[in-house]
Design a protein that fits this description.
alpha+beta, Ubiquitin-like (UB roll), DNA polymerase, domain 1, five-stranded mixed sheet, 5 helices, 15% strand, binds FE2/S2 (inorganic) cluster
Length: 156
């Protein structure tokens, strides 16, 4: 069975998969036990499965495992720790963003990619970057406030 050498949250995580088209999301959740990235639509349309691939936000339900051999993946589990929250995580708590929370991981990872490129985005830039991340609870106003708050504290 082909083996893929993934770097996930800074750790080497070799994965065996019989199918090079298996979505990265399935590998993260089912093979590696990283459950924070969520399956929403499975079609690349909701953003719930967003992770960072070499620092760029990607929809992991649309990324085949065969394309990520040797590449660096970051999930929300690798962004901060309970003892040392990432500024985005602290800001999402401070702004009491999540309602059901299903979309939150994907939104934070998308925001992390934005802040790594644009340290102090405008509200319009935040809204544009998060345009493809859907939230059925309607938490978008608090999401934008939280991302702007994180930017003020210097999240990179
Ligand atoms: Fe991947 Fe919706 S589950 S974009």
């Amino acid at each position: 069975m082909p083996r893929y050498s993934l770097s996930v949250n800074g750790l080497a995580r070799p994965v065996d998969s019989p199918d090079p088209d298996q979505p990265l999301l399935y590998v993260l959740r089912n093979a590696l036990g990283l459950h924070v990235a969520k399956f929403g639509c499975g079609l690349g349309q909701c953003g719930a499965c967003t992770v960072l691939l070499d620092g760029r936000a990607v929809r992991s339900c649309q990324v085949p495992i065969g394309d990520v051999d040797g590449r660096a993946i970051t999930t929300l589990e690798g962004l901060g720790t309970p003892e040392a929250l990432h500024p985005l995580q602290a800001a999402f708590i401070a702004e009491q963003v999540p309602q059901c929370g299903y979309c939150t991981s994907g939104i934070i990872m998308t925001a992390a990619a934005l802040l790594s490129e644009v340290a102090r985005p405008t509200e319009t830039e935040v809204r544009t970057a998060l345009d493809g991340n859907l939230c059925r609870c309607g938490s978008h106003v608090r999401v934008v406030r939280a991302v702007l708050r994180a930017a003020e504290t210097g999240a990179r």
